[in-house]
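Aim 2 progress update. The chain analyzed this quarter is reproduced below.
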Amino acid sequence: MSTASQPRPMEAQYQAEFYRGFVHTAGRGGPISTEWSRTKDGRVDFYIPEKKWAIELLIDHFEVNEHISRFKDGGKYHPWLKEKMVKDWIIIDCATSLPTKEFSEPKLWHVVLANDYSKLQLYNHQQALMMSVHLR
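Predicted structure tokens:
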């Protein structure tokens, strides 16, 4: 069976796993909001109110530039930055391979999972390996 025919988790599964990992790390009392928004126009996947951090998860490099533009001047999330409702943000692109091109946005990180999900590798926006973790 080729890797292309193997089932891939949907975004909600990645979100659930991120949330589980956050609670495991920060504890049950660690505040985190899912699908957070300050307006009717858009919402981020996660918001950590104590830090005012916004977190977006992407799957398989889908619309990377569009998601980056949401935080830039004129983007739907940019007013939250200007109003200091969001102090910092990150986009985490989850996939089984690196994208074919580099991106210039330093707030974009890539999580590359082995096809059997036994290994996770974390890369920065320039595709430099930052860490590798065995999951099983």
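The chain has a mean pLDDT of 87. Residues 9-20+40-134 form one domain. These observations will guide the mutagenesis experiments scheduled for the next reporting period.
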